[in-house]
UniProtKB/TrEMBL annotation:
GO terms for molecular function: sulfur carrier activity; transferase activity. Pfam families: DsrC. Part of a sulfur-relay system. The gene is tusE. Its EC number is 2.8.1.-. This is Sulfurtransferase. Belongs to the dsrC/tusE family. It is found in: Cytoplasm. GO terms for cellular component: cytoplasm. SUPFAM superfamilies: DsrC, the gamma subunit of dissimilatory sulfite reductase. One of its GO terms (biological process) is tRNA wobble position uridine thiolation. It comes from Pseudomonas nicosulfuronedens.
Length: 111
């Protein structure tokens, strides 16, 4: 199992690079995960990451692309809840990458 070094602490990651423990997530952990993916988190990214964590809190699962897009559209409007917008923010894999950066498990139907 690999780890992510955050503030001198080694956080365990699963085989796909997701945090092994949901409770290890923090803003600093998200920044470190994003850095590993070559992403600089902007306020637009944070808006989606926090919304994803809200979704997880409500449904106890990480959404696939379609439910993610629908949820974002309901909460933030159709401009932000579009596949184009989310694909641009998260390198064409919004459900997988956004879940990873939000400290959530990998969506179950993502390869």
């Amino acid at each position: 199992m690999s780890t992510l070094l955050v503030n001198g602490h080694a956080l365990p990651l699963d085989k796909d690079g997701y945090l092994a423990d949901l409770n290890d997530w923090s803003d600093v952990a998200a920044e470190a995960l994003a850095h590993n993916e070559g992403i600089h988190l902007t306020p637009e990214h944070w808006e989606i990451l926090l919304l994803l964590r809200e979704f997880y809190g409500e449904f106890q699962l990480s959404p696939a692309n379609r439910p993610l897009i629908k949820y974002v559209a309901q909460k933030l409007g159709t401009e932000k809840g579009s596949s184009l917008h989310l694909n641009l923010l998260f390198k064409g894999t919004p459900a997988k990458l956004a879940a990873k950066l939000a400290g959530l498990p990998k969506p179950t139907n993502c390869l």
